[in-house]
Amino acid sequence: MEQTFYKYQGTGNDFVMIDNRQQTFDKSNTKHIAFLCDRRFGIGADGLILLENHKSLDFKMVYYNADGNESSMCGNGGRCLVAFAKQLGIITDKATFEAIDGPHYATINDNIVTLQMQDVNTVDKYDTHVFLNTGSPHHVQFEDHIEDFDIQTKGANIRYGSPYNEAGSNVNFVKKISDATFAVRTYERGVEGETFSCGTGVTAVAIAMNFLGETNQNLVTLQTQGGELKVSFAKKGDLYTNVCLIGPATFVFKGSI
Ligand SMILES: N[C@@H](CCC[C@H](N)C(=O)O)C(=O)O
């Protein structure tokens, strides 16, 4: 049976979107999901997202990494899903939806989506890096030569190394540009390589930079390989709350496969 799909991207982090409100998509077929995401043999994407019905919210998000496995929260994917829900006529300018890490609230204005992320109450600081979970696990460390270093090798070593091992972590390399601007490159678990941008990743970087005292701003700009994102938050004691990921979410094309 032919499957209709929609392709979206948010600062170059790209996704295959499928309207699964009729529950026709076979979620158990990991190899098929990986095939759809394959850039040579399939459509090509960093991940695949199902939009499903929800009993009390506007919709539900089900996210798979490019390797075909369901994974934790995807910030850019969530923003793109809001734009997809608007294209389908499910919402107009605001949305509530459930993802694997809980309920989310979002607004959309033209193609700019502001997505509220979960609160963060734990940031672990080590000698070389910071670790925190923004819906997905993120290792954050400084890299002076961010423009030209071997992110594939260095990212994979950290992602597969101790303490993360097989379960893994996403790995973000950061360079400070100014008090409220940071350049970020991310090695993503489940893609097993660099993506042009990672929403939960830049969220983790913004919070980590505040935690480390590298910025005292509560609106931070993150420069990624695929464009700029902004993250805003409020700090209440040890809690980062009202965390918002802000940036473009763009429809690319529709097809069937
Ligand atoms: N690209 C995503 C992160 C997706 C999840 C990640 N690969 C994982 O498995 O942890 C984002 O925009 O947040």
From TrEMBL:
Localization per record: Cytoplasm
Residues engaged in binding substrate: 13, 65, 75-76, 170, 188-189, 199-200
Protein EC: 5.1.1.7
Molecular function GO terms recorded: diaminopimelate epimerase activity
UniProt-annotated site: Could be important to modulate the pK values of the two catalytic cysteine residues, residues: 138, 188
Active site, renumbered: 74, 198
Substrates-to-products reaction catalysed: (2S,6S)-2,6-diaminopimelate = meso-2,6-diaminopimelate
Top EC group: isomerase
One of the record's GO cellular component terms: cytosol
Pathway in which the depicted protein is active: Amino-acid biosynthesis; L-lysine biosynthesis via DAP pathway; DL-2,6-diaminopimelate from LL-2,6-diaminopimelate: step 1/1
UniProt keyword terms in alphabetical order: Amino-acid biosynthesis, Cytoplasm, Isomerase, Lysine biosynthesis
Predominant cellular place of this UniProt entry's protein: cytoplasm
Any GO BP annotation: lysine biosynthetic process via diaminopimelate
PROSITE patterns linked to this entry: DAP_EPIMERASE (PS01326)
InterPro entries registered for this protein in UniProt: DAP_epimerase_AS, DAP_epimerase_DapF
Assembly: Homodimer.
Protein family (similarity comment): Belongs to the diaminopimelate epimerase family.
Function: Catalyzes the stereoinversion of LL-2,6-diaminopimelate (L,L-DAP) to meso-diaminopimelate (meso-DAP), a precursor of L-lysine and an essential component of the bacterial peptidoglycan.
Protein name, entry field: Diaminopimelate epimerase
